[in-house]
């Protein structure tokens, strides 16, 4: 079975631009979470979507938004890009809400560079 | 708030050496604990997990025991291989929550 897929692999943008990142979960998984991993740090939780509804949000500004589609794929949007948004953006999927008994599986990530 | 603290790296070992990577956590309630591994250029892979106190997670020769009394979840392996070179992340999931809270990661380099 295919794992979590993300696109694009790499992306270069300039300050002030907008970016859309995409994620396809493992078949049968209904939950998608987004994480930001700045170089040299651990991933930070941004959003979780379950059954197309936002179920949780981390401490990120309103420039960050996301949505989940009927096929459970997801998009992460970032407006008015800042240099500090440069990071690896990771998507994780799980069957349910992703609590301790429900494993989250991560995709390879999208490397965003903001110049 | 909830948090995870890992020993700083890099940790450099010779092949077949014993590995310990320390991880301690702060959390209310009863979190689940995880170790994830990130190989160069790849995403995170779940290595092992434990969902309650005194549980031992194990996989591929790695082990970690959920110690509530010391709020720790140290990762161990008896004999490391060059292929174990990667960044290891300790993480927790709060008792009633879905999100993962990660430590800052520990880079392991195993030399032949």
Structure write-up:
The complex is a heterodimer of chains A (115) and B (112). With 115 residues, chain A is mostly beta strands. Helices cover 0% and strands 50% of the residues of chain A. Chain A is built from no helices and eleven strands. In chain A, strands 2, 4, 5, 6, 9, 10 and 11 form a seven-stranded mixed beta sheet that branches. Chain A is globular, with a radius of gyration of 13 Å. By secondary structure, chain B is mainly beta. Chain B is 0% helix and 50% strand. In chain B, the strands form three sheets. In chain B, strands 2, 5, 6, 10, 11 and 12 form a six-stranded mixed beta sheet that branches. In chain B, a hairpin with a 5-residue loop joins strand 5 and strand 6. At the A-B interface, strand 4, strand 5 and strand 10 of A face strand 6, strand 10 and strand 11 of B.
**Helix segment tally of chain A:** 0
Total strands of chain B: the figure is: 12
SSE-based structural type of chain B: mainly beta
Question: Any idea what the shape of chain A is?
Answer: globular
How much β-strand is present in the residues of chain A?
A: over 45%
Q: Spans of chain B with pLDDT under 50 lasting ≥5 residues?
A: none
| Rg of chain A (C-alpha, Å) | 13 Å
Classify the helix fraction of chain B into a percent range.
under 10%
Q: Strand portion of chain B, in percent?
A: over 45%
